[in-house]
Hints:
Blueprint: H1 2-12, E1 19-23, H2 28-41, E2 47-54, H3 61-74, E3 78-83, H4 92-111, E4 115-117, H5 122-135, E5 148-150, E6 155-157, H6 165-174, H7 191-206, H8 210-233, H9 236-239, E7 240-241, E8 244-246, H10 247-250, H11 255-270, H12 279-289, E9 295-300, E10 304-309, E11 312-316, E12 326-328, E13 332-334, E14 340-343, E15 354-357, E16 367-369, E17 376-377, E18 386-387, H13 388-394, H14 399-402, E19 407-409, E20 415-418, E21 422-423, E22 436-440
Parallel strand pairs: 1-2, 1-4, 2-3, 4-6
Antiparallel strand pairs: 5-6, 7-8, 8-11, 9-10, 10-11, 12-16, 13-14, 14-22, 15-22, 16-19, 17-18, 19-20, 20-21
Helix pairs in contact: 2-6, 5-7, 5-8
Amino acid sequence: MEKVYQYLIQTIGLKKEDVIVVGVSGGPDSMALLYILYMIRRQIPFSIVVAHVNHNIRKESEKEAIFLEKWCQEHDILFEKMKIEQYSDDNFHNEAREIRYHFFEGLIRKYHAGYLMTAHHGDDLMETILMRIVRGSTLKGYSGFQERVKMEEYEIVRPLIFVTKQDIMDFVTQHAIPYVVDKSNFKNKYTRNRYRKNVLPFLKKENAKVHEKFFQFSHTLLEYSSFLDRQVDKVYHQVYQNKEIQLPAFLKLDSLIQEKILYRILEEIYHDDMMVLHDRHVQLLFDLIHSKKKNTYIYLPNNIKVVKEYQILRFTDQVQAIDSYEMELEDYVILPNKKHLERMEECEGNGNDVCRLLSDEIALPLYVRTRKHGDKIALHGMNGHKKVKDIFIDAKIPLAERELWPIVVDSKNQVIWIPGIKKSKFMKKKSEKYDIIYKYH
């Protein structure tokens, strides 16, 4: 952890007039970072503001906030907290992150802070890069996250990016630093946890310093991305202004520059939240651009609507009403009809609200979307296919509800499940072999 100390003192160059907002959950990672800052403060008397967010998901959250507030009082550190009362987005992790950073930025303005520090470490970087490689992302997205990001009025710094989770655990043990344990970090239903438990141990066995290789890989991708950015700078505002792409000028560009322009637009819209996107979304944009229809549209995650009108492609987040959607089916999704789709480790039910699948028989990842004209499903226990439209009619689903009713498909666009209504031939019984479980509730 000596490298972290030296990074903060020499590379960042902390000074006594600095104010640092540090995001602290109370877990070992953030407590290690907080302790290091506290120790440096004994030499350089800068100000530390602890920002704690109660995500209001686990019953232990209240006790964790009390523990952290007490620790800060004992060590003369400013403590600020907030509690997320409710969620409304279609992606729990995405919305929680947005609320968290909005809270952080409010504290930065309140205390005139120059730095926001978070406890993302080397293992987190590896997990993020691997997840994005599997899901698809931008060139910059594949790099994971940076140790330093300059914002308009402050800088995001991730000092632990150089060390591993084991380094952190050894450090908190050596210095008897108290911390809390979030048991959800061990549940296999979360994608990141599966990478953490199954993939990283293998890579570390191959090379104990593999996190350093990933760090270098990240920097290399950022360098290439920066080069392409400079090429895009020359034409960007010629083809894109006021959230509109002028298609005639856009289509004259090299395909690689076109793709980079689309990714830059998405980065401007989604900021540092590119995890909700992947290459399938960019392909949807290209399909929209090359569509023979003069007037058509698609929805991207977070209700971003993209409209093609003759020779213009317009991006807008001012969605008044949702009449269609398509999103990757991740661990937990809140649907526009206010229902939830959640990946489970175990589930006792066996009705149409539960989906059991064997990943070898389908094309991952799965997607959830509204129905499309001509959708058919190969029903469980029956030969042939049946139109989804007819299934809605048979089930007496009101027309207004049909428009938002979720349809689960795989990457080959095969209808896998109509949640709450019908199962496909891909569905497994409890007595059969399966490795994916989803519940609709």
